Each structure stands twice: as C-alpha cells, then as structure tokens.
Please model this.
Amino acid sequence: MLISINKAYYSRRMYFNSVKEGDLTEPTKHCVRVNGIRLYYVDWGGDGPILLLFHGDMRTSRSWDAVSRSLTADYRVVALDARGHGDSDWTPRGYRFAERIDDLAGFCDALGLHDIIGVAHSTGGVVMALCAQQHPGIFSRLALMEPMVVVDDRFHKMVAGREHAERSTWKSREALHDYLKQHPATSNWHPEVLRDVVAHEAYRRDDGLYDMKWSSATFNWKDRDGDHVDLKPVFAVLGLPILFIRSSGHQTRIKELNEVQDGIPDFHRLTIENTGHNMYMERPEAIANALKAFAAGRELPPTL
Model:
C-alpha cells in the first residue's frame, strides 16, 4: 500500500499568522512517477546551472529552503523528497541503497538532468555518491555533507529501532515550533529553517495530531540488514571534484577521510564551525557560500 501525505487538510495558514514571519520566497511543487511511485520535488526556478539537493533520513526537500533562497540568484535549485519522505509515496519496502539509487537516477532521467551539481546530506550523500558512480554523466561535481564513509551493521543497528519506536507528535504547529526551539538537537537551527520545517516538514494526521513527514518503514530491518557500503573506493574512481563538508561538532571518521584525500587530487574538505550533523540547517548562509565557491571552482578555506 502506498501512503501519500499530499493532503489538503494540513493547512499552514494559522501557523504562518501566529509566528508573524515576513513573506519568504517559496518554490513551485511538482511530481514525477519513477519506478512505479510518485516522487515530489520543489523547483526554485532560475536560469543558472542546476543544483540538485538531496536530504538524508527523516528530513525532506524543505529542510533545504533557507540554503536554496541564498542560491536562486545564481543557480536553478531543485530539491527532491526521497521515497518514504515528505510528499513522495511512503512504501513499506524499497529502502536498500540499490533501490534508493534507482529512484535518484530515475528522477534525474525523468527530468532530463545531466552534468549537474549534486548536493546531499548524510545517507542522501551515500546514495548520491553511489548514483554518480553507477550512472556517470548525471553529476559534474558533488558536495557531500557528512555522508557515512562506511555503512555497516553498527550503523544500521543504531538506527533500526526507529522503525517500531513511538512517534513523537504535537497538538499544533506552534507546539512543534516551541519543542524544536528548546530541544538540544534542534535549538541551534536557524530561525528561518525552524519556520520552514514546522510549515512544510510536519503534517496533520487524521487524529488531529501533528507528525513529521517521514515513514517509520524507511528503517525496516529487512531493507537495512546486510546493506553495507564503503565509499572510499567509490570516491577513488568517480573522477569528479568532491567537496566533503563536515561539522565541527560531529565525530566523522577522520582516519578514513585522510585515506580518501591522500589518494584523490580533487577531493576537498571543509569544516563548518559551531555546527552539528545538520550543519546546513544551523548555518544555511555558510553552506550556500561554500556551495557557490565550489560550484565556481574557487578555492575554499579549510573552515568557515
């Protein structure tokens, strides 16, 4: 059974009025059918080179809104909702890396995207790197924010419990906003990002409670079990400029990064200071500036 969260009843008007935010630029929303499911995406318009933004687990295309607004003057920005996330179809299975790669490649084929700049976060970065390897010609360069260099059982077992964990819910968007402002993992998010997440990454369920727009099935063990990846040899053969962005507050396997950088001349590393794993949601302007420099082939400092 496919589950779609694209329902008219999650009106955001009351939330927008209550937070009294000024009008922010919004993208247009579109849908394509890929591999038998509906994949939704947002398009920020523009006539420049195309940047494709791809989120990780438990996020959506709208987590990139603040970054996108800073890029639209120079680039055409497109952001995708992965299967099981946002408004794309929520399927009970289909979350192994091979299937996620097929979804991403199929999406790019459906839109006629080639020789584009790929930007991805966390598990989305793993998928994008593997897609670039298996489907040469789609991407011209990659900016990857803390993808797991090695995905093994240790990681899968750490996250698999989310499949059956009780869902966090809220009585209103205002309650969700207050929760995110105070929670240690999200209190550093940029105010604009908080506004976007509450407005677009949450939906009103049939029981009247608000939930986040990702399916628990994305963590099902049948799809996670044995789905291992090592990106070191992938990076070595891509033949593309790669920018690996890490946060100052998150423990990335530095030894593995050193091994990668030592063998690849066009592999660059950047640390975003005063951030955690979701660095693009904490310092969207810094990320946007880094992406502009990388896309233009300009040299970046080691930290921003």
Summary: The domain at 25-165+217-295 is CATH 3.40.50.1820 (Rossmann fold). The first strand starts at residue 28 and ends at 34.
